[in-house]
Amino acid sequence: MPIKTIFLDRDGVINEKAPKADYVKKWADFRWIAGSKKAIVLLKKHGFKIIVVSNQAGIARGMMTKDDLYEIHEKMIEEVKSLGGAIDAIYCCLHGWDENCECRKPKPGMIFQAQREFHIDLSKTFFIGDDIRDEEAGRAAGCRNGVR
User: Does the annotation count 9 as an active-site position?
Assistant: First the structure.
C-alpha cells in the first residue's frame, strides 16, 4: 500500500519568513505560522508521512551554521511531537544560489532523495509551498502541488 506523504516547504509554510535577504538563523527567530503546528499534527493523525524540504542558503552565505539549523529543526520537531504529531524527515539544501546543485529548489533533488529513502509514489504526493520554486520542484518531481 502506498505511503501517504505530504512534502512541506519550511519558511513561509511552517514558519514566518525572515525579511528579504535575511534568514531564520536561530530558534529565537523562528515564529510558527498560525495553525501550522496543528495542521502537521492532524495530517500525521490521518496517516500522512510529513517531510520538510527547504532551501537554506544562509549557511553557504555564512549567516548561520549547520548547528544553528539543526537546533531549529530539533526544536521544531520537539514542539510538534509534544502535541502528538511528528515530522518524519527534513531535507535541506545548504548550497548557495549560484552553486547549480541538484538539490536546491526549483530542482527536485531533495524530493527524489526522499522518494528513494521512503519508497514514495510521487504521483500521489502533495508538495505544499509558498514560492514558485516550490511549485516548479514539485511539478518536476511529478507531485501534486499546492502553493499558498
Answer: yes
